[in-house]
Design goal:
Layout (H helix, E strand, L loop, with lengths): L2 H17 L5 E2 L9 E6 L12 E6 L3 E6 L2 E6 L3 E5 L14 E3 L14 E6 L7 E6 L6 E8 L6 E15 L7 E9 L16 E2 L5 E2 L9 E2 L8 E8 L8 E8 L11 E13 L4 H23 L2
């Protein structure tokens, strides 16, 4: 065994492995059905068998790490980002910098320490979770998803669907809204991405989710899986994703909702994002066939000159 060469090979392999880590979800990682690519995420976790509050650590574009019943778990979430306006440079789930996964009856029963964002769960199905935000005027968050078209073909007919779920009702008649926005960019750097501070977004109000349950005199936990506390959202995004482009989407509390402190806990669940490979225009086909014809003529002429 040649130790120096082996060591060099290991170093190169490590460097290549690090370089290959995606800065988002790549379209090529999805298995198409015909000409349609579909990304799905239900945010479900495993290992939760009690109603004890569980805390964990969130890592942008990577995972949620948590411990349940003395066993460590990870929920892989590549392409997902979270940031808070109180400290936008540090991805966090609440004011203590941790994620919380449920507590007590339905959703989160502890009102304090759950600002920013949280995983919530229902009593009957502890592992059936949703990614939720719960903001105040001082601590506001945004969560987002990034996908890159790393194929050679443009994609269009882009449709996003998800279920909006309310996991807590505060003692206020005011509604809260998770606003949805999107944008397409030609370059993206995950390490410096701040989903809250990013600018240049476009609104798509059809995909906003407004709290369906309000008007109580006291706050209460809700089961976001109940029909009265959830709503299916679906809409087509009016964009085309060319080869090399990135699609960025995000959810955040409406600015008008900062009057309600703290706000209702609103989450997203069962997300689906479908994209269809674009069909070239007839003029494109004509250009291709023309180029092929010219190439064939050139080959014939060269052969004739021999």
């Amino acid at each position: 065994m040649n130790t120096p060469r082996s060591l060099l090979a290991l170093c190169l392999a490590a460097m290549l492995g690090a370089a290959s880590l995606p800065a988002q979800v790549n379209l090529s990682s999805l298995t198409p059905s015909g000409d349609t690519y579909t990304y799905t995420e239900n945010f479900n976790i495993t290992g939760v068998t009690s109603t004890t509050t569980i805390t964990g650590a969130w890592t942008n574009n990577s995972q949620l790490a948590y411990t349940a019943n003395a066993t460590p778990y990870t929920k892989a979430l590549p392409g997902w980002f979270l940031s808070m306006v109180s400290d936008p440079t540090v991805p966090t789930y609440d004011t203590s910098g941790t994620a919380r996964i449920g507590s007590g009856g339905a959703g989160n029963s502890t009102a304090t320490g759950l600002l920013g964002a949280t995983f919530s769960h229902a009593t009957a199905t502890l592992n059936e979770t949703a990614l939720a935000l719960r903001n105040t005027a001082a601590t506001q968050s945004a969560l987002g998803f990034v996908i890159k078209n790393d194929t050679a073909t443009a994609v269009d007919t882009i449709t996003l669907a998800y279920t909006g779920e309310q996991w807590r009702r505060e003692n206020s008649a005011q509604t809260n809204t998770l606003e949805f926005q999107y944008k397409v960019v030609s370059s993206f750097t995950a390490a410096s991405y701040n989903v809250w501070a990013e600018t240049g977004w476009s609104d798509l109000n059809t995909l906003d989710f407004t709290s369906p349950t309000v008007g109580a005199t006291t706050g209460a936990n809700l089961d976001g899986n109940q029909a009265a506390n959830r709503s299916l959202k679906s809409a087509a995004l009016p964009v085309t994703l060319d080869s090399g482009d990135y699609l960025l989407v995000r959810w955040f509390y409406s600015d008008a909702d900062t009057q309600n402190v703290p706000g209702h806990a609103l989450g997203i669940d069962d997300l689906s994002l479908s994209m269809v490979a674009a069909i070239p225009e007839p003029s494109t086909y004509a250009a291709i066939f023309g180029a092929l014809a010219l190439g064939a003529v050139a080959v014939i002429r060269r052969r004739g000159q021999r």
